[in-house]
User: What shape does this take?
Amino acid sequence: MSQPDVMDKLVSLCKRRGFIFQSSEIYGGTGSVWDYGPLGVELKKNIKDRWWNAMVRSRDDIEGLDAAILMHPRTWEASGHVAGFVDPLVDCKTCKGRFRADKLEDARCPQKPSKQPGQHDACALTEARQFNLMFKTHMGALEESASVVYLRPETAQGIFVNFLNVQQSMRQKVPFGIAQIGKAFRNEITPGNFIFRTREFEQMEMQFFVEPGTDMEWFEQWKALRMQWHLDLGLSRERLEFHQHSAGELAHYARAAFDVQFDFGGTLGFQEIEGVHNRGDFDLTQHQQFSSKKLEYFDQVNNKRYVPYVIETSVGADRVTLAALVNAYREEAVEGEAEGRVVLGLNPAIAPIKAAIFPLTKKDGQPEMARKIVEDLRGAFPVDYDETGSIGKRYRRQDEVGTPFCITVDGQSTGDNTVTVRDRDSLAQDRIDAGQLKAYLAGKLLG
Ligand code: GAP
Assistant: This one.
């Protein structure tokens, strides 16, 4: 076990401090579906915005897209999901548990957790049967087989079917990419580990269309760029590694694949947070066949037509949010204090609250001055005002949600217009002019 297991503590912190709640909790909860609370939605949005900026806004060779969740059912025949997006499932007739037949070694018998399903005398496992992970629903008033539609299990197919729409409307030339962020749904047999594997989740996917023959070069470039993105997000280098898919692991569409893995600690350890895949021309060729519409690119310079190959980068927004939380969580002693502190050492750029403003006391004009600072900063940064409890307690509350700066208005402040700014990590305190706060914070947060 390389890193400590902080998952139970995080689940409790996330609920207590408004990051993540069990979905439909008052009804007993919905299995492996989670709701993001006020701080969680900010954290996840900051991560998605960072991805969008890196992938779309800062490049002129990638366009954004927001395709619909419900797609023509033929899409999923073409993509291979109707026939092949299956896991082998076994039931236990005794305990009614359901397990993935190919992952029994990772599961525990509910009646005897020291054993895996099938190993306890009372276990009565059925034969394995193939279980399709797509959620089915019906479009229109009639629930008949002709009206079946699926909730998309990946966002990628919305990009493939729009390849020519985007290329032609935006006059893009190969190589170029299309990126989108959106919900995906999988009826996972064994979801779990908080927001790590859920049935409803968000993906951030980018398909980069390249000329066949140049694909492996682009594949290597995207591998390196995506690893750097995770490092820039603040994930520790020692917690990140690549895992190359062996021939047996490769998905039906992939010519080559690497996962970016993150060490979640405890027994979960290193797990995939992003996949970088060379999908070849599998998807465009399949959609050509199933739709009878050409999905070729015409290279005017060289006067040739071809179906581009695709390099895909596919990352889960929820999984990266969990990685950022696990990576940031720490408990530490505080000099001169009996109680330690819990800190979310998030990269300030993704912290849900950038600064908290406290009046030291509730008198002498301090609350008024603190509230004015809140109003001045609010347009530029998400900020919080807190006047309850001792200053130490207020610091601890902000440390626990990852707020990088705490600004205190004290007795001196109302006289000379200066305040103290405390740094979450170093605990150093700077005294600065209140009029300089916006520039000071901008320098620290963007620098
Ligand atoms: N289009 C390719 C694709 O969907 P994938 O490896 O199945 O590839 C990509 O999924 C990413 O989506 C994963 O690396 C993970 O971050 C996220 N993901 C997949 N299934 C998930 C689930 N059940 N819950 C949360 N995130 C999931």
